[in-house]
């Protein structure tokens, strides 16, 4: 049985009872001098965003669209050993030699030679800009053990193309710094912006600092204004000012406004781009707006109604209507007639504690933020509040999840050397 590794990312992993445990993110191998690499196992991402090791000896079968393992799964966070290589993270995009010809690796084939004994047997390569593909045996290739200054990123990006931004961010975070920067530089601005929003602050700052200032400003423009403001808050003042100056004035304006509020206030965590419509808009128009794919569920749950202009800071704030109410009304109904009179807006100077009590008290996932002139300046969503109330390193912390793994009965020995 032969499997090409670049097709595995995102493949669901099931336990013996048929329960979904996580998804494959990479394959761990050990390079051996004069011999084909041996597959040690899979890096599997389990919720919430924790990467663990699944030994190949515990894999019962690999089918189209699924991996099934037997026994227990060690829930300790995966740590790559010095003698190990990640196929997707570190082998794809390498420049190798097939005979005397330089080639670029875009996939690697693993094969089960004996039960639970998998080795890397094939390498898929291409040459030059025409990308003429070839598949050759492992023994025909040299150069995997060479440290390369610029590895490229096309193969890894293609392998992770279908991943959500949060999963891509998790994959980037676990790569060596050099590889992380190579991948980040190769991503399109909009994709990199989405990924940056999901990374810890240290990773954000590190990646942004490796980009040319003009490109860094372009990426900030693609980010949500609230996320861009959070990132600029963490940068040295001089660097933040330089990037703001390089941004398009229309894109920089909402970010500048958000930077005027304290970081731990409603104004500091709100999004300045909620769904806003005039009172003369119809229910059908409102539903069309909240169906936009790029809106998060928390932002799409409410439509804010104001006098023109309908970009923050808006004209006079009139009220809010919820998507459930919109679903119950005839499509031609005007929004001015379906406002919820029970929801009072909050002020930008509300503390995070006050915002939290407000959302909890009224069972809301979002709240309008209105300034002293009665203008809507943004909306605070529950995910904004959680991002700022959790510890700064919450995306990286593993200790808080150990109890859960023990309760699930999946803690076992790390038999990587079986």
Explained architecture:
By secondary structure, the protein is an alpha+beta fold. The chain folds into three domains: 2-142, no CATH class; 154-263, MgtE N-terminal domain-like (MgtE N-terminal fold), CATH 1.25.60.10; 276-389, CBS-domain (Roll). The protein has 17 helices and 18 strands. The strands form four sheets. Strands 2, 3, 4, 5, 6, 7 and 8 form a seven-stranded mixed β-sheet that branches. Strands 1, 9, 10, 11, 12 and 13 form a six-stranded antiparallel β-sheet that branches. The chain has a three-stranded mixed β-sheet with strand order 14-15-16. Helix 8 packs across helix 10. The model is unreliable at 398-413 (pLDDT under 50).
* Estimated share of beta-strand residues: 25-35%
How helical, in percent, are the residues? 25-40%
* Uncertain parts: 398-413
Strands, count: 18
The Cα radius of gyration reads 25 Å
**Which class do the helix and strand fractions yield?**
alpha+beta
Shape: elongated
Total of helices:
17
Overall tally of structural domains? 3
Query: Alpha-carbon distance between the termini?
Result: 21 Å
Overall pLDDT metric: 89
**Main pleated sheet:** 7 strands, mixed
Topology record:
Layout: E1 2-4, E2 12-14, E3 20-32, E4 35-46, E5 50-55, E6 59-63, E7 66-69, E8 84-86, H1 87-91, E9 95-98, E10 101-114, E11 117-127, E12 132-137, E13 141-142, H2 154-159, H3 165-173, H4 177-186, H5 189-196, H6 201-210, H7 213-222, H8 225-234, H9 237-246, H10 249-259, H11 266-269, E14 276-277, H12 283-290, H13 297-300, E15 302-306, E16 317-322, H14 323-328, H15 352-361, E17 366-370, E18 376-381, H16 382-389, H17 402-407
Parallel strand pairs: 2-7, 14-15
Antiparallel strand pairs: 1-10, 2-3, 3-4, 3-8, 4-5, 6-7, 9-10, 9-13, 10-11, 11-12, 15-16, 17-18
Helix pairs in contact: 3-5, 5-7, 7-9, 8-10, 15-16
């Amino acid at each position: 049985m032969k499997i090409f590794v670049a097709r595995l990312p995102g493949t669901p992993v099931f336990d013996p009872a048929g329960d979904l445990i996580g998804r494959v993110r990479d394959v761990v191998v050990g390079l051996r001098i004069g011999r084909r690499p041996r597959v040690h196992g899979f890096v599997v991402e389990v919720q919430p965003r924790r990467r663990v090791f699944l030994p190949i000896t515990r894999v019962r079968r690999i089918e189209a669209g699924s991996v099934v393992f037997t026994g227990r799964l060690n829930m300790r966070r995966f740590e790559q050993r010095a003698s190990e290589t990640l196929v997707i993270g570190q082998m794809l995009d390498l420049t190798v030699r097939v005979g005397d010809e330089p080639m670029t690796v875009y996939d690697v084939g693993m094969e089960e030679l004996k039960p639970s004994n998998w080795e890397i047997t094939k390498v898929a390569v291409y040459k030059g800009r025409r990308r003429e593909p070839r598949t050759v045996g492992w023994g025909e290739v040299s150069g995997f053990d060479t440290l390369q200054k610029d590895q490229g990123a096309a193969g890894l990006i293609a392998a992770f193309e279908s991943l959500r931004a949060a999963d891509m961010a998790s994959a980037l975070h676990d790569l060596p710094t050099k590889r992380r920067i190579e991948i980040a530089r190769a991503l399109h601005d909009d994709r990199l912006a989405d990924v940056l929003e999901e990374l810890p602050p240290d990773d954000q700052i590190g990646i942004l600092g490796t980009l040319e200032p003009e490109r860094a400003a372009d990426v900030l423009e693609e980010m949500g204004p609230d996320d861009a403001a959070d990132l600029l808050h963490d940068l040295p003042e001089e660097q933040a000012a330089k990037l703001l100056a390089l941004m398009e004035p229309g894109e920089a304006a909402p970010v500048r406004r958000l930077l005027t509020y304290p970081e731990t206030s409603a104004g500091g965590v709100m999004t300045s781009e909620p769904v806003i419509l005039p009172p003369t808009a119809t229910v059908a128009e409102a539903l069309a707006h909240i169906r936009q794919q790029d809106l998060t569920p928390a932002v799409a749950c409410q439509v804010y109604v104001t006098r023109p202009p309908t970009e923050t800071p808006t004209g006079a704030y009139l009220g809010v209507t919820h998507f459930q109410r919109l679903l119950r009304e005839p499509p031609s109904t005007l929004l001015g007639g379906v406002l919820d009179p029970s929801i009072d807006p909050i002020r930008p100077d509300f503390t995070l504690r006050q915002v939290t009590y407000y959302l909890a008290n009224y069972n809301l996932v979002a709240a309008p933020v209105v300034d002293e002139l009665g203008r809507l300046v943004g909306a605070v969503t529950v995910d904004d509040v959680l991002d700022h109330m959790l510890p700064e390193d919450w995306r990286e912390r593993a200790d808080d999840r150990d109890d859960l793994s023990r309760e699930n009965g999946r803690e076992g020995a790390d038999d990587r050397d079986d």
